[in-house]
Amino acid sequence: MDPVADAASREHFLDLIRGRRRGFVASLARFGLWLLSLGYGVVIRLRNRAYTMGLLPVVRTTVPVVSVGNLSVGGTGKTPFVEYIAAFYRDRERLVAILSRGYGSEGGRNDEALVLEENLPDVPHFQGPDRAALAATAVEECESEVLVLDDGFQHRRLARDLDIVLIDAGAPLDHLLPRGLMREPASGLRRADIIVLTRCDQADPVGLRRRLARIAPGKLVAEAVHRPTYLLSTSGQESLDKLKCHPVAAFCGLGNPDAFRRTLFDLGADIKDFRIYPDHHPYSRDDVADLARWAESQPRDTWLVTTQKDFVKLRVDSLSGRPLWALRVQMELRGGKEEVESRLAAVGTDQGKEGNRTNSDGSESDGAASSTGTSVSGCDGTASPQSPGQGGLTS
C-alpha cells in the first residue's frame, strides 16, 4: 500500500474517533468501535489485576530499573525522555543501559535505536521482545548499574524502581482502543511514580492537571517541552534561525505528526508542503525515489526538513540534489525538574530502595531472567556486529 495513502487513512480514522466526522454512518462506526473497546478493556483489566494479585510472574533484576512509558498509542516524546534519563545517569558516572522492544525494527535497529545511538554513542542499547532477558544480558555483559526501560508502563513482567508515565498535554485521556487511543484506562496512572506532561508549550496543561489530581491524587506531576536545538545533516549543523520566514517542505513518520508541524510553525518556518508517513515507517528505495520527485516539485528556494527519526533511516545527503535537514529535538523539564531529578538520583541508593524498591504489582521478588537478549549496540555504545543497522539509501 502507498505509505502516504496509509498515513492519510490513519488521519481519517483519527477524525472518526475524535468526533470530527459527523453523520449517521460515522456515529454507527464509533458505536461499533466502542463495543470492541469494551472487550479490550475487560482483557486489560484482568491482566492488570492478575499482576496486582501476583498471579502473573514478575522478574526483578539485580540492578535498579527506571521505566518510561505512556497510556496511549502515538507520540508523547518517549525517545527524547529516555535520552534525557540515560544522559542524566551517564553524566553522573553511573553505567546505564537502555532496553526497548524495537517496534518496526524488522530484525535490525529501529528508528528510536538509531536516534539514541547517534545522540548517546557511549550508552549501550538492547532491543528485543523479552525485556527481562535483555536486562539480564545488560547486567552480565556490560555490568550496567541502572537500566532504562523504554515504553515499559504496560510491560509489567519486569519490575521497576521508578515508573514514569508521559502524557501529551494536548491529547485527551478519552477512550480505550479501538474507540480511542488509550492502551489502558486512565486509572492505571495510580501505578505511576511520576507523571510528565509533555509539549506543554503547545497546550495549556491546567485542565489536565485538575483531572490527574482526581484520577491519581498525590502523584508528582512535572511539565516538559520538546526543545528544538539545531538543524543537522550528514555534512554538519545549521542554526534554527535559518528557518525563520523561509519556505519549508517537510515530511515525517511519527505517531504525532501535527506536533512536528506545530514545532516548525513556532520556529517561524513558512510551511509550503507537509507529507505524512505512518509511524516507524521503514523507508524503501521506492519511497526515496518518490520523495525525490516530491522534492523536485518544490520551489528551488524551499528547504527540505524532516525529523531525526526519519533522517537516521533515510541516511541521504539530499533529495533531487537538494540538501535534506533534520530537526534535532531534546526534552526539557520546566516544571518539577528538581523533584524529578531528585527521584532519579535516589534510584539504586539506600533512599531509593526504601522509597521505590517494589515490583509493578507492589510485591517483592527475587527472580531473575536467565535467557539472553539482543544487543543493538555494544557496551561502549558502538553498533553490535550481531545486529547490523539499516544501510543508507540513495536518491
Task: Please supply descriptive tags for the structure shown above.
395 residues; alpha/beta; Rossmann fold; 2 domains; 13-stranded mixed β-sheet; 11 helices; 13 strands; globular; disordered C terminus
The percent range for helix content is: 25-40%
Taking pLDDT < 50 over at least 5 consecutive residues as the criterion, the unreliable ranges are 353-373, 385-395
Rg value: 21 Å
Q: What structural class results from the helix and strand content?
A: alpha/beta
Order of helices and strands: HHEHEHEHEEEHEEEHEHEHEEHH
Which architecture name of the largest domain does CATH use? 3-Layer(aba) Sandwich
Tell me the name of the CATH homologous superfamily of the largest domain: P-loop containing nucleotide triphosphate hydrolases
Count of β-strands: 13
Average pLDDT works out at: 89
**Proportion in β-strands:** 15-25%
Distance between the termini: 21 Å
The CATH topology of the largest domain is Rossmann fold
Number of domains: 2
Instruction: Report the sheet with the most strands, covering strand number, pairing sense and barrel closure.
Output: 13 strands, mixed
Plain-language structure description:
α4 (111-119) crosses α9 (308-314). This protein starts with a helix and ends in a 39-residue tail after the last helix. It has helices spanning 3-17, 24-52, 78-91, 111-119, 131-142, 206-215, 257-266, 285-296, 308-314, 337-346, 350-356, and strands at residues 65-70, 96-100, 125-127, 146-150, 162-168, 194-198, 220-233, 236-238, 247-252, 270-276, 303-307, 318-319, 322-335. β6, α6 (206-215) and β7 (220-233) form a beta-alpha-beta unit. The longest helix is centred in the first third of the chain and has 29 residues, at 24-52. Mean pLDDT is 89; it is low at 353-373 and 385-395. The chain is built from 11 helices and 13 strands. It is globular. The chain is an alpha/beta fold. The protein is 34% helix and 21% strand. It folds into 2 domains: 11-227 and 331-384, Rossmann fold, CATH 3.40.50; 228-330, Rossmann fold, CATH 3.40.50.
